[in-house]
Amino acid sequence: MTAVPHPRSEAAEPARTGRRSLAVALLFGALGAAVALLASRQRWAEGTASVAGGAFPLTAKGSDVTGVPAALAIVGLAALVAVFAVRRAGRFLVAALLALSGAGIMAAALISASDSTALDEKAAQASGDTTATVAALSHTGWPYVAAVGGLLILIAGLLALRFGSGWPAMSGRYERGTDRPRKTARPVDPERPEEIWKALDRGEDPTGA
């Protein structure tokens, strides 16, 4: 006998795929931004400058070399949150921004992996010679760590572009409670004076006019 696919299982498969892609995008996006920000604060390059007393050690953090990865990591985080606040075309644009942020982090980190401009400027300041350059230049692996963070953000953006249309969105209304229908005032019995006085106290017209 041939097994017949259950309709419910076929309908539930897109929902499961959407939940998995959403979880992966959130994880990769947040983790990638954290990695890129952390890497930007680490030492990317080191060398020495020639001064009167001999060789002076110099170091440059990622933020000294380029501020692009840290800035785009913050943009990526904002875009990751904004994906759930917009719908349709807006969600597509925000997802594209998320992907471009990741790609920009990768490009900036890889281009700056062998850059010596920041250390040359520090060498010129330390030696007092504007033409001085850094000596014994070496680089660390942190630029490549930042590039990995950008790759994670890029994957999150691509997932948002591919599956984002099926993800949930934030509600546009923030309700503090359920609105209850107002109770209709009971007609005043003209033969009961106490009800007439109560209606007058409430500002109602006991005659119903």
Automatic annotation (TrEMBL):
Domain of life: Bacteria
Cross-referenced Pfam families: Trp_oprn_chp
Keywords of this entry: Membrane, Transmembrane, Transmembrane helix
Transmembrane portions of the chain: 21-39, 67-86, 93-113, 141-161
Disordered, as annotated region: 173-209
Name recorded for this polypeptide: TIGR02234 family membrane protein
